[in-house]
Design a protein that fits this description.
- With 323 residues, this protein is an alpha/beta fold.
- It has twelve helices and ten strands.
- The strands form two sheets. Strands 3-4-5-6-7-8-9-10 form an eight-stranded parallel beta sheet. Strands 1-2 form a two-stranded antiparallel sheet.
- Helix 5 links the parallel strand 7 and strand 8.
- The longest helix is centred in the N-terminal third of the chain and has 14 residues.
């Protein structure tokens, strides 16, 4: 399975996993199945991705063919903001489990902080950001301690083995730690050389919260959205330093970027549909970068280039969660 990270819940999480964001429904089952054949055991999904049913089909096929057992897999899903009211958390996780065809998740995360007004799945699923499905962002009055208590209850009921958070910042994490009966085992954040968030990483290390990096290749995943700041940057895969280090170590630029994260103790969840690249990405812990090279990559941090935030996807004056 490769290297793992011990969570505060006591469970082991693979350090290198496979991300399922933007994996098309038409190919999701085959993509998951092929990734299992390559050697991936962690799959990072979410209700919002709209492909959980198909991803589950890929897993079911692999299990049926004896490629893997359920216990050998580590499956993550996420709670969308419209389901953060206390009485909506359990129905939401049960819906995701049903779509996956699973009895439990290894890790269940709150996808974004900031509860939004509930949208019945019978009306629209996945519900997206907007209450009306078009442009209206409506916040819920549910505070985080209520949502977190409901998250703790899904652990008590055996629906999730570990729980955590995604896209949270330091102040809210410190507040959560004051009242959490079960502290968050993991934090998932956008993390790449343009957005290191070192102080947030320091907090997590001090509080035994494992960190998973998404968007390890920076702007690459966001070019299709037309983000101006993504198009304005030199792609990290073509960055002069990253390319030079790839030549130095005999690795692909993608492997250099992933090793920069994993060697610093983070988990990563890259994705690709190409089998050869799947294997390359998975093999990002079998070599070490010199500390001076890690420092050079880290020095590219500008601290303010964030791609995955609501205000990048749509105009809003009501949902500034990274303000």
């Amino acid at each position: 399975m490769g290297p793992t990270i011990k969570l505060s819940s006591g469970h082991e999480m693979p350090q290198v996993g496979f991300g399922l964001w933007k994996v098309d429904n038409a190919v999701a089952a085959d993509t998951v199945y092929n990734a299992i054949k390559v050697g991936y055991r962690l799959f990072d999904g979410a209700a919002d991705y709209g492909n959980e049913k198909e991803c589950g089909e890929g897993i079911a096929r692999a299990i049926k063919e004896g490629l893997v057992t359920r216990d050998e897999l580590f499956i993550t899903s996420k709670l969308w903001p419209v389901f953060e009211d206390g009485d909506k958390v359990e129905p939401a996780i049960r819906r995701s489990l049903s779509d996956w065809g699973l009895e439990y998740f290894d890790l269940y995360l709150i996808h974004f902080p900031g509860a939004l007004k509930y949208v019945d799945p019978a009306v629209r699923y996945p519900p997206g950001w907007h209450y009306d499905g078009k442009s209206e962002v409506v916040r819920s009055n549910t505070p985080m301690h209520v949502t977190w208590a409901a998250m703790e209850s899904v652990v008590d009921k055996g629906l999730a083995r570990s729980i955590g958070i995604s896209n949270f910042q330091a102040q809210l994490i410190y507040d959560m730690l004051r009242y959490a009966r079960i502290p968050p085992a993991a934090l998932q954040i956008e993390h790449h050389p343009f957005l290191v968030q070192q102080e947030l990483l320091n907090l997590c290390k001090a509080e035994s919260i494992a960190v998973t990096a998404y968007s390890s290749f920076g702007p690459a995943s966001f070019l299709t959205f037309g983000f101006k700041h993504a198009h304005a940057l030199v792609p990290l895969m073509e960055d002069e330093l990253i390319v030079e280090l790839g030549k130095k170590y005999g690795k692909e630029p993608s492997q250099i970027l992933l090793r920069w994260a994993t060697q610093r103790g983070l988990a990563v969840i890259p994705k690709t549909s190409r089998l050869a690249v799947m294997a390359q990405n998975l093999d990002c812990t079998g070599f070490d970068l010199a500390q001076e090279d890690i420092d050079k990559i880290t020095a590219k941090d500008v601290g303010s280039i964030r791609f995955n935030q609501p205000s990048n996807y749509f105009e809003t004056d009501k949902f500034w969660i990274f303000g």
